[in-house]
Write a structure and sequence with these properties.
Layout lengths: L3 E4 L1 H8 L4 H13 L9 E2 L8 E5 L4 E8 L4 E9 L8 H10 L5
């Protein structure tokens, strides 16, 4: 069974902002791979990000934050970016902020 993949406009902007073409392509390949068994990939998140999953991409530094919608067989990618623990530009910090502001649907 193949899932449809949709990136939020913010996730598209985040991906486009990655200047290294090779890294951007690796992340795009990982996103495409979510079309098959997305619920078995990555790790489930907790706290404010409960219901979302995180998948490592382009080595260990980049993350793809996504959730699945089973009834529609849809994978919604909400954010992509660097893991910078303790930094305001950390992908988890940014994803929480997007969700709090209601910018993810």
């Amino acid at each position: 069974m193949t899932w449809n993949i949709r990136l939020t406009p913010t996730a598209q902007d985040m991906l486009a902002a990655i200047t290294d073409r090779r890294i951007r392509e690796k992340i795009a390949q990982r996103i495409d791979g979510l079309a098959h068994y997305p619920e078995k990939q990555g790790k489930p998140l907790s706290g404010e990000l409960a219901g979302y999953r995180s998948l490592r991409a382009a080595g260990q530094r980049y993350r793809i934050i996504y959730r699945t919608q089973n009834k529609r067989l849809l994978v919604l990618v909400v954010a992509t970016g660097l893991r910078k623990e303790g930094d305001r530009q950390d992908i988890y910090f940014l994803a929480k902020k997007l969700i709090r502001l209601g910018l993810v649907r």
